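Troubleshooting: if your tokenizer reports a length mismatch, compare against these two reference records.
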Amino acid sequence: MTIFRFRQKASQLVRFWQQQFNSHSLLSLQSLMFIKGILLFLLSIGVFLYITDRVINLETRDWDLDIMLAIQKTHIPLLDILMKTFSNIGGPLVLIGISVGLTVKFGFRRQRIELFGLLLAAIGGALLSLLIKACFNRSRPQIWAMIDDHLNTSSYPSGHVMNGVVIYGFCGYLLARSFPRWRGLIYLGTFLLVLAIGWSRMYVGLHWPTDVLAGYATGFAWLNASIFSFEILKQREEIRRKQV
């Protein structure tokens, strides 16, 4: 009898949550996005903390050096030009230019939620990058340097990679929303671009591999937080329109 009651209560609970998740209420939509957002955010932070712990304890020193020396052997004139280009694509001038251009576009079109999401991603990501760098004092590789960036900030994590993931990732997300048919290609192109930026920072000799990995982890964490905030506001707007 007790087992029967337990199964009955469990079935009622399952039906309740199915109704909640299948409904178009703001609570159910936010609940699903909240769970997904928190899990991805925590996963990214966990990866960053894991890498940071190994870097602080000097456990990655030999690994970093071995990879950098292996990358040095791949240097050829054509790749030199290509990697310098990708490094510049992930640089502050290009990223600021893209952000300003999209800010003007969203402002003229009165796309307030898109504007808020972009500013949150761009400004928040830049400030977070500077804050994390200020907590570390890791020197940049002294093996070679193909680009003179006059950088005085900590090497850990890579600001180019982190901000590149945030800006290009958020742009790719918006494009995928606008062109769902091409979503797969858009995400693939975005992934390859940020991957090339990270590789280029090692290729030109300005970052250790762990700097790049930490940049990916922190960048994805902030990108996920920005997209999560955007989705919540977008869902509220859509539900408000349906109610009107």
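Reference record two:
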Amino acid sequence: MKIDEQLLKSYSAEIKTYKKRELIFREGESPAFYYQIIEGAVKVNNFNEEGKEFIHNILEKGQSFGDAHLFIEKKYSVNAYALVPTTVIMLPRKNFINLVKENPHVSLEINACLSHRLYFKMKMIHDMVSQHPSARILGLFNYLRSYTDCEDQHSFNVKLTRQQIADLTGLRVETIIRTIKKMENENLVKIKDRKIYY
């Protein structure tokens, strides 16, 4: 979901730059802003009781994050960190709600975007119970790609390590490496400079 920057500024949005690894918001905090990335990358995650990280997504230029929390009286269920030096445009929650009320086309776009994300999240959860490693991996890749405009085959760069893919799918790293190699042979993914493209 991307809202026109001039429209955001007309509702008193501000621009802020975060350093690499700097926290943008923390799990348990009350949502205060709509965030949209101008440059850089943001990791959305949380940790379980043992301190194990669960990465929900890695977002880049033009993408928004934390927006679903702005419509409900719930605290953040995730953290957001700048992966690299990152510039975002931030709109206070009250102004964001006014923008949505006064611009019905934005409201429709947000509803479509949130519905799209929910659809792929449910699909990913369904794929995660599969006994086939490739189904779990593809479910994850489809979910991550749903946040982008990448529709062409092999145009989406999966910016996760093999270990992170293993953590997200409940598979062993060795299984991930072996399955991704098989998926490459089947032309489901491309590997270039150790990077995965789906």
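Descriptive notes for reference record two:
- The domain at 111-197 is CATH 1.10.10.10 (Arc Repressor Mutant, subunit A).
- Helices lie at 5-10, 93-102, 104-128, 133-145, 162-169, 173-185.
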